[in-house]
Amino acid sequence: MRGPQLMTYKVSLQDNQRQFEVQEDETLLEAALYQEIGLPYGCQSGGCGACRARIVSGEVEYDYDPPALSEREKAEGYALLCQARPRSDLVIQVEELPDHHAIQVRNMPVRVERREQLCHDVMALWLRLPKGEAFEYLAGQYLDFLLRDGRRRSFSIANSPAEFRRTGLLELHLRHVPEGSFTAHVFNEMTDRAMLRMEAPLGGFYLREDNERPIVFMAGGTGFAPIKSMIEHALERKLDRPMHLYWGVRARRDLYMSDLAEQWQAKNPSLRFTPVLSEATEEDQWPGKRGLVHEAVAEDHPDMRDLDVYMSGPPVMIQAASKQFSSQGLPDGQLHYDSFDYAYQTWPDKEASTG
Ligand code: FES
């Protein structure tokens, strides 16, 4: 219920003239979603930057400094909609998601249909939805498992919407996190046909099909999952755009679906695949690229002005890559990302100082 005595402000979206109302105690994102305005978001806790928007006019305030917004971005007029509360009427510049009204966030039980260990520390889960339930998502979006103790665990959907419609199954890639009780449960105790509850689809990471620019996809570890969904979707839709997939992992054994990526490349002249190992061992006998995946992308594409980049992986990779790519001319609006923990085992130390 909305409190009667709180101040209500008006927020206008600069690009499409739509408006919504927000109370002083609400975040802009909460109010927008409540009024069915589809804005991009991810973590909803100030940590990923997916809800970044430009404040064209007006004032906002934060309860605390959100980690994914630098002082410089603040000074340049950017805000994180999942944390910002209004202090005046506002005009903001942000991309509204397409067809938001058609894609409803659902809360429903799902059954684990199948599990398959893909490599030493990654498990695929296939989930079946209740019969007769309509469910739609965009390639690249994620779901939250709602656990009994009230916590949530987020996982990207790894298959394309068309494949889901064919099979009725949602595919996830879970990396085993030693200190993570949920993934430990999935690896060690979960029985087939286990029941879980999910909320989905979530997030603003999806493939933009309104332009012809070449695409770079960059994945770190299990950040491959949403990228896989996007590439399958792009190939099914026969998108006529050059695509280059970079997949960064530590060692050869972490490339848990490289055969699939090789097949994409063999069958589609417009798609290239470059795996990048950051800690290749002698045993790997690795003839390919070494180092950090975003450095490989930056080296191959010195001028990024005419690219679209989609990247998914751990926050430190996303932060280093965003800085690097922007210094090579990539416009903000052409960079799309999904930032999540546990995608990649401990990111190499030197990454922290990159960029
Ligand atoms: Fe706002 Fe992640 S920072 S959704």
List the helices and strands and how they pair.
Blueprint: E1 8-13, E2 19-23, H1 28-34, E3 52-57, E4 60-61, H2 71-75, E5 78-80, E6 85-86, E7 90-93, E8 106-119, E9 122-128, E10 142-146, E11 152-156, H3 161-167, E12 169-175, H4 181-188, E13 195-202, E14 215-220, H5 224-236, E15 243-249, H6 258-267, E16 271-277, E17 289-290, H7 293-300, E18 308-313, H8 315-327, E19 335-339
Parallel strand pairs: 1-7, 14-15, 14-18, 15-16, 16-17, 18-19
Antiparallel strand pairs: 1-2, 3-5, 3-7, 4-6, 8-9, 8-13, 9-12, 10-11, 10-13
Helix pairs in contact: 7-8
Bound molecules: FE2/S2 (inorganic) cluster.
CATH architecture field of the largest domain: 3-Layer(aba) Sandwich
The major beta sheet can be summarized as: 6 strands, antiparallel
Can you give the helix content as a percent range?
10-25%
Q: What's the count of strands?
A: 19
Question: What's the CATH class label of the largest domain?
Answer: Alpha Beta
Q: What is the residue-averaged pLDDT?
A: 89
Whole-Å distance between the termini?
46 Å
Shape: globular
The arrangement of helices and strands along the chain is EEHEEHEEEEEEEHEHEEHEHEEHEHE
How would you classify the helix and strand content by structural class? alpha/beta
Tally of helical segments: 8
How much is the radius of gyration in Å? 20 Å
